[in-house]
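re: that chain from earlier
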Amino acid sequence: MKNTIDINSTQALTAACGNGVSGVMIFALLPMLLGVSADHLDLTELQAGMLASAYFSSYALVTAVSIFWLRRYNWRSMTFVSIAIMAVSLAAIVLIESYQTTLLSLLFCGIGAAVLHTLGYAIISDRREKDRDFAIKLVPEQVVPAALLILLSLYFPEYLNFNTLFLCLLGILGCHMFLARGVPSGIRSIQQQAKPALSNGISLGLIAMFISFTGFAGLWAFLERIARNGGMDIVLTGQLISIGLISSAVGPAIAAFIADKYGRSLPLIISTLMAILPLILFINVTPGRYAMVMAVLPTAWFFANVYFCSVISEHDQSGRMIGLIPFSLACGALVGPGLFGWVIDGYGYVASYGLCAILFAIGTALILFLNQSKRVTNNV
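^ sequence. v structure.
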């Protein structure tokens, strides 16, 4: 396809947002998807966990090799193919309704979602205003799943089930088809392409992202269990988790407004403290305390995530390594739930909250160091 889309246009930004939404929607709704799948298909805890592992394993594999395909194939074509893969997989889940089909379909969904999410990051990385546009992209990624969960849990709780949730995801993909026409080609000429290299800066940034997201993903995976310990039913849990999805969009929205007005170090420090302090409220869980954590913690973490992405992007001279951001997120999603489950089984929930705080702090410390080193280099 001939490229007629300006990478800095609103159309390209909107398309990047569409790719982002389809790329993250399964992870955003993972606590509810695993819950309804376990109930509908009568799954054990191990089988439910295998559904998540199937999705994230293929996702991690595709993003890990993104440096080989990101600049080689037309982004618009890859977007449409990935949407089709996910749509067929989700349709199979609804039509066949078996554990084996759901497992295999989520494996293929991971492939499509990985390509879409990577392309979303790549489009923004090529644009001029990275801080603002990374923030803008993150907003619909949280708002769309939140709106879906709010609609079902508040107004149609009787439809908060297996078939409805997967059909809604299929509907989101249908809407995405109309936005995908705005995806630019992304193919660079030989003269434009720099040799891909995993520099120390990119490596450190990806490690920082992985560590921080391991903490967030581990906590996110056990939100339903934490709520159950507080005596909340699944409908109330869905409503409260939807608060977390909304607040996840608030953080990037604030970052889009602030951008680099105050640099990156101060916003990162403040947001990390705001992500850590609410964890204290989980020690004695009540619906009110749970709601407060959902309102503050995701806001703070996703606010900081904007600056994580910008710092890593600045170190990517080839334009190919940006695809490893979704890979680091996928690795965090793979490691986090298992690590937190091990800590909870051995030491209890309070210890897992402490682990979450430590991971947030380490991730931020590493990205602050990387950002400061970049500033020093630029001033020399």
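Residues 55 and 106 are 5 Å apart (CA to CA).
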